Amino acid sequence: MYSFKYLPSVLSIAFIAALNSSPALADNFLPDVQQQGEIYYITGGIGDEETSAMQSERGDYNLQIMNADKQGHFSGYPHIIITDMQHNELLNADSGPLFYTNLPSGRYIVEGSSMGQTKSQNIVISGAKTSHVRFVWK
Predict the structure, then answer these.
(1) Which of 8, 35, 40, 132 is most buried, with most CB under 10 Å away?
(2) Helices (H), the chain
């Protein structure tokens, strides 16, 4: 016959282990860091787990791009191009609904293309300040 004498202790240990592994679980859903030239970035945001994992990392990036439809729902797979103000291309990549990267201080043009539309926004990266770009697609 089995004893349930130690069941509360076993459940407590399992609960503590689950809490401590939460960051590890988030890491499982975090998209891989990608690189173009000197620029590192992550992109994704498909599904709740991946979105949560990415949002937990957003503080590590000084440029955050979100792609959504008019109702505010994450949208599509836009294409992102980042250039300096002299139109020198620094990054050219497909994107998920969320796109996070770090850029050196300076002025940039962020361009997104999706569903036959193209939008752009000028941004300034300065110090520890985070720049946000939100593209709204039809």
Answers:
(1) 40
(2) 7-20, 22-29, 48-57
Spell out the domain ranges in the chain.
Answer: 8-137
Q: Give the per-residue pLDDT at 3.
A: 46
Core vs surface per residue 45-55: b (16+ CB within 10 A) or e:
bbeeebbebbe
For the segment 46-58, what is each residue's pLDDT rounded down to a tens digit? Answer: 889 999 999 999 9
Please check the confidence at residue 2 and state whether its pLDDT lies above 70: no
Cα–Cα distance measured from residue 93 to residue 69, given in angstroms and rounded to the nearest whole number: 20
Name which CATH class applies to 8-137.
Answer: mainly beta
Given a cut of 70, whether residue 7 has pLDDT beyond it is: no
pTM of the model: 0.78
120 CA to centre of own chain = 19
* Tokens at 34, concatenated: 């990608």
